[in-house]
Amino acid sequence: MPVTVIIGAQWGDEGKGKIVDMLTDRVDMVARYQGGANAGHTVVVDGEVYILHLIPSGILHTGKVCVIGNGVVVDPEALIREIDELEGRGFSVKGRLFVSSRAHLIAPYHKIMDVAGETASGAGKIGTTGRGIGPAYADKAARLGVRIGDLFRPDYLRERVAAALAPKNALLTHLYGQKPVDIDEAVEWYLAQAVRLADYAADTGELLRHALRDDKEILAEGAQGSMLDVDHGTFPYVTSSTATVGGAVAGLGIPPMEIKRVIAIMKAYTTRVGEGPFPTELTEGDGPRLRKLGGEFGATTGRPRRCGWFDAVVGRYAVEINGVSEIALTKLDVLDGFDEIPVCVDYAIDGKRLGRMPEDMSLLDKVTPVYETMKGWNASTTETDRYSDLPENARRYIGRIEELVGAKISIVSTGKARDATILRW
Ligand code: IMP
């Protein structure tokens, strides 16, 4: 199985970090393919909590090679902070982490543009993480971005920065009423990053292709989730990258035929951060209860996550667009104390069932979820590691989700620790 891709099947925060960490033992390399420091992957190892934003959680496994691919937008200050923290906690990073020279950089001016753009949008804001993600990807598409490889060619770097700053300074001064960004300061900032990044920059596409040629196993790690994908998600309330499986091919530089397995991570209920439609959202009662029980606060921004019941329309859609071969269902234990657990099986507008995910995502604001109510199990599943030890109603819940979304649940996560996991293969 040369390449296994891990994707989030909902709006992010499905618990990908733990599953990637768990599967890392079975692979040689872990490669992140899109997004940036907007992601926050929480992993608990021997009771120690690690929150990683850019570096694949595979770094916590001695000897595994980790890659940040060309499809990622890299905030070098965030990356260096993460490297320093890992090294401070005893992990070797140099020689095990490689960052694509083709990856675009996020500079302080991207964060300024992100926040200024959101402020100017008022009620129409996206609710971004403010990490400069959208403006950095916009620069990449507009061919105004600065790539990691550019840091090592100072004259060319200055040209790139001048091109990037011209339209931004016009916007900052004329539209947003802010100070322009000084080119000398910006170039100096970039050059300061070069000093630390030099040890990590590489042609990671070639590294991965050579590894595949040598029959190495690669885990490709997606960030965010399918409903935040720039094409297939709840546009415009999405992130600016391809969080679905296709992002792995473009964002790592590997051939599609090498992907043999796609594992979708789905939380046993649904959450989302930021603005945008969310049909099964529960603003009162069980919503806040799920938030409290599940500790649903953003790992990156600390924002409270919006919570609701499992949405099988979303799940089925994610299975279809990603060609999901199996599912990891996470946080099952959060549902332990509920007498009844509704599952959204379809959407309806004016009593008429849609039977599918509408392509006009604005309809998601108008739909009413059609629920099927499952009996709860009122027993602790926390840290259960055998499927047969799960209460019957929990097994029924799992079976019904499999039927509704059309893929097998081969991993069930019942707690934060590595071994709080049921494997069904
Ligand atoms: P951006 O990626 O910062 O531009 O934010 C765009 C949208 O994606 C906002 O709704 C964010 O809350 C959401 N988002 C970005 N990264 C994550 C993540 O890792 N988990 C959950 N939501 C995210």
Task: Give the helices and strands, then pairings.
Blueprint: E1 3-8, H1 16-23, E2 29-32, E3 41-45, E4 48-52, E5 65-68, E6 73-74, H2 76-88, E7 97-100, E8 104-105, H3 108-121, H4 133-141, H5 154-175, H6 183-197, E9 201-202, H7 204-213, E10 218-221, H8 246-252, E11 259-267, E12 270-272, H9 286-294, E13 306-308, E14 310-311, H10 312-322, E15 326-330, E16 340-349, E17 352-353, E18 368-375, H11 392-405, E19 409-413, E20 421-423
Parallel strand pairs: 1-10, 1-11, 2-5, 2-10, 5-7, 6-8, 7-9, 11-15, 14-16, 15-19
Antiparallel strand pairs: 3-4, 12-13, 16-17, 16-18, 19-20
Bound molecules: inosinic acid.
Inosinic acid is lined by residues 11-13, 38-40, 126-129, 131, 133-134, 223-224, 228, 237, 239-240, 273-274.
What's the CATH class of the largest domain, please? Answer: Alpha Beta
Chemical compounds bound to the protein: inosinic acid
Strand-pairing-aware structural class? alpha/beta
Tell me about the largest β-sheet: 10 strands, mixed
Q: Can you tell me the overall shape?
A: globular
Ranges where pLDDT stays below 50 over 5 or more residues in a row are: none
How do the strands of the widest beta sheet line up side by side?
A: 9-7-5-2-10-1-11-15-19-20
Q: How many beta-strand elements?
A: 20
Name given to the CATH homologous superfamily of the largest domain: Adenylosuccinate Synthetase, subunit A, domain 1
Question: Could you say what the CATH architecture of the largest domain is?
Answer: 3-Layer(aba) Sandwich
What distance separates the N and C termini? 15 Å
The proportion of strand residues reads: 15-25%
Number of helices: 11
Q: What name does the CATH topology of the largest domain carry?
A: Adenylosuccinate Synthetase, Chain A, domain 1
Mean pLDDT: 95
Helical content (DSSP H or I, runs of 4+):
25-40%
What's the domain count? 3
